[in-house]
Fold:
Amino acid sequence: MTRYPREVHHMARPSANQATVSRLPSTRESRPALIGLAVLLIFGGALASAWLAIQSGNRSYFVQVDQEVAQGATISKDDLTRVSLPEGFKGGVPSSDSDSIVGKSAAARLLPGTVLMRSMVSDKSGLSENQTRLTVTVDASPFISGLQSGDQLALDIGTSDGGKRQTVRAELISVGDEQGGAIAGSGGDEVAIVVSIDLSCLSVVSQGIEDRSITPALIGGESTLVKQTCEA
Structure:
């Protein structure tokens, strides 16, 4: 009988540079990690919600303009309302201090919805005793547009019959917007200014307004050359 050499089978060894396949974690092993992540997200969301709730709760009421108030006009209680704003809002007047605003003058034109600032209110409370306000229409010019509320003016007033001109002291309250061609055939622009004068000068200034013979001039200091009253 012929004998054949015995075959020996050897197992192939993996080479050193052969990539090793990692075993993926089973579903049971990854479940605790997913649960931990979910708990962390829920906890973080709860903290964020609590922070937003706290922030939204820190609010206060401030004074807001409810009805338009012209520059120089006296602010009444009906002109104001209140609005809820973040507690740290700077510059606003707390609604609890609204009584300190009522009766004072608007330093600028106040539009509805405006959150009132201290700088928008004049320290002067309305009209002084024996004072009145009226509107004077004058020719528009860079001089007029450059005037500011509180400026002291001298109103040079003429007469339609050619009589002696008079000069009356006035305080500027506000300057209106220019209006083109207000006088028929003049073709010029006009602007209305609001001034405060002594009540004794009302007739003189009113006549000047009717005659359209008033020329305003800016003066400085307490000039004694311009009379403040028009008593005979």
In short: The longest strand covers residues 166-180.
